[in-house]
Amino acid sequence: MTASEPANSDSSETNPPSSDITPEVIFLGTGTSVGVPAIGCECDVCQSTDPRNNRTRCAILIRLPEGNLLIDTPPDLRTQLLREKIGLVHAVVFTHEHADHIYGLDDLRLFPFRLQRPVPLYCREEVESRIRTSYDYAFSTRTQTHAGSRPQLQIHSINNGDSFEVLGVQMTPVPLKHGPHFDVLGFRMGDFAYCTDTNHIPESSMERLRGLDTLVLDALRFTPHPTHFNIDEALEVIDQLQPRQAFLTHLGHDIDHGPVETSLPDHVHLAHDGLRLSMPSIS
Ligand SMILES: [Zn+2]
Ligand SMILES: [Zn+2]
Ligand SMILES: [Zn+2]
Question: Which ligand is nearest to the CA of 97?
Fold first, then answer.
């Protein structure tokens, strides 16, 4: 039996949804597009023995009573899901179509056999177009050579304005700018919001981020960057929005977790891979 031939695999679901679950946010990855350590880099952070300086590419998973909701499918996805003992993913929402956010999608290929249905993906038109190009084999009209040889994907279109429901949770898209020419969606669920890959939040989107308990926000490094907030810019946004707490993500190798965490305001923290936040107010 090959990995792509799951005919004999157990069809029962591991970690099935349960009404007993308190919603929880799990940081699968908190690193910039090349990850930390960066291959071949000998800087202090890339050589660090602090596990919090080991950052895979960005994604979060939200455990909900109706299932596991994944935001983005980075290239490290298989390792991340195994590391955190997630079990299956029941739905995916995408922020944008950059490689570090979509190129782990094939890792979901086995899941339809356990779920007995395709994995629903929620994304904007631009992301759908990139997925259809990058994963053209998933949409081939040729007869499969064997079951499981390609992913089963069910794409649901979302847009900048309309809230939508996934796994029983209402999600509000938060349009963000990722440099002057690139649009990204952040998402708000209850009083939690996830806004990665951005260096500008339009005023109408700032309005959607008022009254948060927890904000997760992009902060790449200390010096300015054309498409990401730096630490100072992220702190400025947090100051304007006044969430109860904020976590910085998409961190590069300039950020040494221990000393930088200590230097931040008390209600602002660096996220790290494996960090879990109980968020009972999400559902
Ligand atoms: Zn990114
Ligand atoms: Zn480095
Ligand atoms: Zn990006």
Answer: 3
Beta strands 153-157 and 119-123, pairing class? parallel
What are the chain's domains?
18-278 (3.60.15.10)
Looking at residue 9, its pLDDT comes to 47
Burial category of 269 from C-beta neighbours within 10 Å (exposed 0-12, middle 13-18, buried 19 and up): middle
For residue 189, how far is its CA from the centre of ligand 3 (angstroms)?
Answer: 21
Please, which residues have CB within 8 angstroms of residue 189's CB and are 6 or more apart in sequence?
62, 169, 170, 171, 172, 282
* 126 CA from centroid of ligand 2 (Å): 32
pLDDT band at 6 (very low <50, low <70, confident <90, very high): very low
Are the C-beta atoms of 60 and 28 separated by less than 8 Å?
Answer: yes
Cis peptide before 37 (omega within 30 of 0): yes
CA separation for the pair 53, 212 (Å, rounded): 27
Q: How many Å lie between the centroid of ligand 1 and the Cα of residue 183?
A: 12
Confidence (pTM):
0.93
pLDDT tens for 46-100 read: 999 999 999 999 999 999 999 999 999 999 999 999 999 999 999 999 999 999 9
Q: How far is the CA of 83 from the centre of ligand 3 (A)?
A: 24
- Alpha carbon of 57 to ligand 2 centroid (Å): 15
165-204 pLDDT tens trace = 999 999 999 999 999 999 999 999 999 999 999 999 999 9
